[in-house]
Amino acid sequence: MKNPPELGMDHLTMLDLSPPDFVSVAGEAGFDVVGLRVLAATPDEEPWPMHPDGPMLAETLRRMDETGVSVLDVEVVRLRPDTTRDSYAELLESGAKLGARYITVNGDDPDHGRAAETFAALVADAKPYGLRPLMEAIPYTEVSDLTAAVRIAEGSDGGGILLDSLHFRRFGASLEVLRDLDRDLLACVQLCDGPLEVPQDLPRPKSLPRGQSTDGTDLQLESRAMRQLPGDGELPLKEFLAALPPELPVSLEAPVISLRETLSDNEFARRAYGSLSNVVREARRW
Q: Is the Isomerase keyword given for this protein (predicted)?
């Protein structure tokens, strides 16, 4: 395969691992890049202490140097009605020290006009740090579909969008939409597998890593803990990737609680890498 894309693993896949340990496990498995959870995604979640001048970030940098793994993105900035620069200032500093390229952004503001203004301000604030914010559409957030995410990104001076194969299926977009997207908005893509339809009445685990909530809808629980590795489900992943520029980095975001309970950290990561690389290779051939 000529010029294969970078292959990464997003932190949600193994959120129970601290950032430095996650980097080490990802490197041992063969991943080129990682996404790191620098800010908690929800109020229930306990954040890892990734302060710009803290010991955990310093150790993460040491492991990156040791393994050769780099940071693709840091997450997550949630756009709320009251989001200001103070809400994400520390993430900008941490992301810059980690050498990250992108910031994952989710939308929790029902006023899309205000969300667009906040996103544009984030884009401007992030530029001096060498970071590019990417708006991710998630069907159970206020920015719940690709149309809204694109509109918000287009209203900024340089922001982009982040595509996730599970969310893309769950908000019902078509592959034709991907082919028509402005390529300048695309930076990377997250991949996992799952059933074609939303699973119903999922069993509730006793707990999730870092205190993530087990409440909410089946859609939320599937996303947080019950995805599938690429190739294990029914999503048209080869077609999904084939509709996108082949050079885009592809990052695995696949928390699979059932496998995490039966495999060691390294066993799971190696299996995850094999699954991701196989699907990417097949998509290039397809």
A: yes
Position 286 scores a pLDDT of 65
Q: If DSSP codes are grouped into helix, strand and coil, which group holds residue 111? A: coil
In a domain, 1, yes or no: no
Domain assignment present for residue 268? The answer is: yes
Asked whether residue 2 is assigned to any structural domain, the reply reads no
Q: Which pLDDT tens digit goes with each residue over 236-277?
A: 999 999 999 999 999 999 999 999 999 999 999 999 999 999
Provide the 3-class DSSP secondary structure of residue 102: strand
CA 271 to the chain's CA centroid: 19
Total domains in the fold of the chain: 1
Whether 75 and 48 have beta carbons less than 8 Å apart is answered as no
The answer to whether position 267 is within a domain reads: yes
- How many Å apart are CA 38 and CA 247, to the nearest integer? 26
- The amino acid at 216: G
The range of the structural domain enclosing residue 107 comes to 7-285
Average pLDDT value for residue range 139-166? 97
Largest CA distance in the chain: 47
Q: What is the CATH number of the domain that holds 109?
A: 3.20.20.150
pLDDT digits (tens, 9 = 90+) for 68-87: 999 999 999 999 999 999 99
> How many helices and strands, by DSSP H and E, does the chain display?
11, 8
